[in-house]
Amino acid sequence: MKTTFLTAAFLVLALAGQASAQCYADYKAKQDNPLRLQYGIIELPQAACTSPQAARNYAEPVISRSGWTLLQIESIFGEAEFQRRSVNAGAIHLRQ
């Protein structure tokens, strides 16, 4: 009985930890006149972590506020990948 309770408690804690994990997407965007291209990373809310289309729906208006047009979402990833990928993003390493 004690083992069952401990196993259930562990699963609840593990699922709670997953629900609060950070999610990011890297993207490509452009500006016209003159043409400028950008690679960046955006932090996503949990609801936008489910698919590239959900990430795009969240990211497009955020990126457009800065005068950029979203071209594509490259991938969605967690905190473990964030440090490695943020090096490639340069000054636009995290947009919120």
What order do the helices and strands come in, and which of them pair?
Elements: H1 2-19, E1 23-31, E2 36-44, H2 52-64, E3 69-78, H3 79-89
Keywords: Signal
Signal peptide: 1-21
Provide a descriptive summary of the structure in words.
- With 96 residues, the chain is of the alpha+beta class.
- The chain has one domain.
- It is built from three helices and three strands, in the order αββαβα.
- The chain has helices spanning 2-19, 52-64, 79-89; strands at residues 23-31, 36-44, 69-78.
- The protein has a three-stranded antiparallel sheet.
- The longest helix has 18 residues, at 2-19.
- The chain is globular, with a radius of gyration of 17 Å.
- The model is unreliable at 1-20 (pLDDT under 50).
